[in-house]
Amino acid sequence: MDSLPKKWVCRPGFFKASPHSPSCSKCPPHSYTLDEASTSCLCEEHYFRKESDPPTMACTRPPSAPRSAISNVNETSVFLEWIPPADTGGRKDVSYYIACKKCNSHSGLCEACGGHVRYLPQQTGLKNTSVMMVDLLAHTNYTFEIEAVNGVSDQNPGARQFVSVNVTTNQAAPSPVSSVKKGKITKNSISLSWQEPDRPNGIILEYEIKYFEKDQEMSYTIIKSKETTITADSLKPGSAYVFQIRARTAAGYGGFSRRFEFETSPVSVAASSDQSQIPIIVVSVTVGVILLAVVIGFLLSGSCCDGGCGWASSLRAVAYPSLTWRCGYSKAKQDPEEEKMHFHNGHIKLPGVRTYIDPHTYEDPNQAVHEFAKEIEVSCITIERVIGAGEFGEVCSGRLKLQGKHELPVAIKTLKVGYTEKQRRDFLGEASIMGQFDHPNIIHLEGVVTKNKSVMIVTEYMENGSLDTFLKKNDGQFTVIQLVGMLRGIASGMKYLSDMGYVHRDLAARNILINSNLVCKVSDFGLSRVLEDDPEAAYTTRGGKIPIRWTAPEAIAFRKFTSASDVWSYGIVMWEVMSYGERPYWEMTNQDVIKAVEEGYRLPSPMDCPAALYQLMLDCWQKDRNSRPKFDEIVSMLDKLIRNPSSLKTLVNASSRVSNLLVEHSPVGSSTYRSVGEWLEAIKMGRYTEIFMENGYSSMDAVAQVTIEDLRRLGVTLVGHQKKIMNSLQEVKVQLVNGMVPL
Ligand code: L87
Questions:
Q1: Ligand 1 mean position to 411 CA, how many Å?
Q2: Partners of 133 in the beta sheet?
Q3: CATH, range 676-737
Q4: Among residues 586, 557, 531, 486, which one has the least CA distance to residue 390?
Q5: Would you state the pLDDT for residue 709?
Q6: Residue 575's pLDDT is what?
Q7: Burial of 647 (0-12, 13-18, 19+ CB in 10 A)
Q8: Between 285 and 232, residue with greater pLDDT
Q9: Could you tell me the pTM of the whole model?
Q10: How many helices (H) and strands (E) would you count in the chain?
């Protein structure tokens, strides 16, 4: 009332919305009036009022962009997650809109995605901070823009506030077979041939042909074929049959083709002669096949493979139609040790100091491959089974028979058909890198196939496959010494890599291979693409693709990838090994992992883990990368433990091991909040310890219940101190809710 002038009208800066209001009110935040007797206030520049906002409400503005968006790609689905904008503009009605663009990897040009993409739950008006896009195209670059909007966004002519995320989708099932032609037709059989689907999205392993007599759909026959032709026989004469075909790759079955209808010939047409010819045809075909087999077998054994070559499987016949039947290397590998000083594209290699050469420094990537990898003739390789799939194509097992050598089991990475020149370069880049390494704990490169259309990388075969899968399958089956032996091998391989100046960037149990002697070997090398291949890698806001759970904070935050960040990942691998392939940080989201680690939380000890090993893990996860151990120190530490097995007897104290919970790990000590005193000291509020203890707040559990009123009652009157304590408590409580508790 005091503020009212004598005239009973509002003075500037005040308003009265209705003449019935008893008094004038101050203009709400971000609004003003310069006039007397105002009935409302005007919004400041860049601030707005929505029609339905009451005049007493503050003026608001559009939100800032969403933050920390990350993506997870699963085949042709993309999951996006972000955190709300730092500034909601003063409104509670923030929602999100997703814009989708499909980008050409060569030209970099993007276009709108069109109608084929589905958004779950929806594309616009998203209230939650995540969305899933499905039915994207395989092996395609997409850019998603996540825009934050609120009730006044449409009044702002300014720029859209969005964060964008680039992703590349992975493999997908093949597209349907589209063209099917009829071949020879008799009264009892129909032969068909067809073309590979337009988008095979991988190597086609086989086709499934479903057919039935027209209008008799309930009773159908299914035949499988590795070829693109089949003959359906035992059919009824003069009847119509419906055929549908679908292809299968490592990614699964594609959709069925549309229906194709063909009719068998009627009975009357030269029935008897047709019948009588069958035995003749069968006999002559059989004789022909046997003759051909004998001739090819003779050629092979005579030329190189000493009778050891297996027959090329029909799988190979489908996938690699253009085989040349010659064996042997076309170029011998140069031994860099032979010439004491070797000049590599501007790099002087000093004898004794072997460093890794980035294949990017070669103008001609083909030269790099052939500098470091042997060329293998495709005819020396027999592909047997598909054992995995990656971004570039399938991984197969098979045999390699080289002239004058015993046949070897091998693993073969193939480049999918229809690759681009860049994909071929990136694919072979891995071989250029691997070919420079020679160490018992690094997967050994046998050579590459680059001639013809088939492009392959051939390595030694590791019987037990990827370490993560192997450990999950054999949960609890190994002695601690065996597990430490595996870790020792990985550390030794990593020491070799770091000595060579190679930073791995994707060290994880899934990228370690293990053989029948339980020898672990580091695998998965690459150029920029390493992480494209990794289903764990998520895109960060800065566009890098990073396997968050395995990556050191400085590498996530500012891409500081070094051997010290590899040491962090090594610590995570130790944790994976000691917990038999458990997923680091379980089902926490990437977002939560980043936040927890940044706040000093660390994975707890795996069950039954020797204390010395857990301590080593914690050392690898030091925030300060220079304080982390070096790989040579890790190797000698593990050697000591192996030589002195009783050192592994002390397990991490069962009571201090918190299963399923993250552990506070700050430089001050590995478990800061063991007491109220420690907690208050940590936030520089130690002066209140005594008062807390005297008033019954003697445990962290009790402290978690404290309210602001309690603080006042306890004599914490400075607002700054109240805030500091309440904020820190907030964290403790959030951690309780998330299942992360400081010890
Ligand atoms: O059981 C296996 N034995 N699996 C599943 C493999 C093997 C193997 O020797 N998977 C691979 N092996 N890869 C690819 C994925 C590695 C994480 C490789 C060997 C490999 C190849 C063929 C080329 C280059 C790098 C690794």
A1: 6
A2: 78, 119
A3: 1.10.150.50
A4: 531
A5: 85
A6: 97
A7: middle
A8: 232
A9: 0.51
A10: 16, 33
Handedness of CA 449, 454, 456, 462 (dihedral sign): negative
Q: Whose CA is nearest to atom 12 of ligand 1?
A: 411
pLDDT digits (tens, 9 = 90+) for 632-690: 999 999 999 988 888 898 888 655 665 546 776 543 333 356 788 888 888 888 889 98
Read off the pLDDT of residues 107-144 as tens digits, 9 standing for 90 and up: 878 889 988 888 999 999 999 999 999 888 877 889 99
Pocket flag, ligand 1, residue 457 (CB < 6 Å): yes
Sign of CA dihedral 117, 118, 119, 120: negative
Residue closest via CA to ligand 1's atom 10 equals 465
Which residue among 523, 532, 536 is best mutated to probe the pocket of ligand 1, counting the most ligand atoms within 8 A of its Cβ?
523
Query: For 535, what's the count of Cα atoms within 13 Å in the CB-facing half-sphere?
Result: 10
Q: Which of 73-82, 315-324, 364-373 has the lowest mean pLDDT?
A: 315-324
pLDDT of 307 > 60? The answer is no
Domain boundaries, the chain: 1-59, 67-168, 180-265, 365-460, 467-659, 676-737
Mean pLDDT, range 416-433, rounded to an integer: 90
For 262, what's the count of Cα atoms within 13 Å in the CB-facing half-sphere?
24
Tell whether ligand 1 has an atom less than 6 A from the beta carbon of residue 461: yes
In short, whether 513's Cβ falls inside 6 Å of ligand 1 is yes
> Tell me, what's the pLDDT at 57?
93
Residue 645: what pLDDT?
86
| Cα 281 to ligand 1 centroid, rounded to whole Å | 45
Q: Which amino acid is at 83?
A: I
Chain centre distance of CA 441? 24
**Which residue among 506, 513, 525, 530 is best mutated to probe the pocket of ligand 1, counting the most ligand atoms within 8 A of its Cβ?**
513
Name every residue whose Cβ is closer than 8 Å to that of residue 529 and which is 6 or more positions away in sequence.
391, 426, 429
**CATH number for the 1-59 domain, one of 2.170.30.10, 3.40.50.300, 2.60.120.200, 2.10.50.10?**
2.10.50.10
Whether 506 sits among the annotated catalytic residues: the reply is yes
> Which fold would CATH assign to domain 67-168?
Immunoglobulin-like (2.60.40)
Catalytic option among 506, 524, 533, 566: 506
- State which fold the 365-460 domain adopts: Phosphorylase Kinase; domain 1 (3.30.200)
Q: Is the CB of residue 50 less than 8 Å from the CB of residue 62?
A: no
pLDDT higher than 50, residue 461: yes
Fold assignment, 467-659:
Transferase(Phosphotransferase); domain 1 (1.10.510)
- Determine the residue of 391, 397, 462, 463 to mutate for testing ligand 1's pocket, defined as the one with the most ligand atoms within 8 A of the Cβ atom: 462
Q: Do domains 365-460 and 676-737 have the same CATH topology?
A: no
CATH assignment of 180-265, among 3.40.30.10, 2.60.40.10, 1.10.3210.10, 2.40.50.630: 2.60.40.10
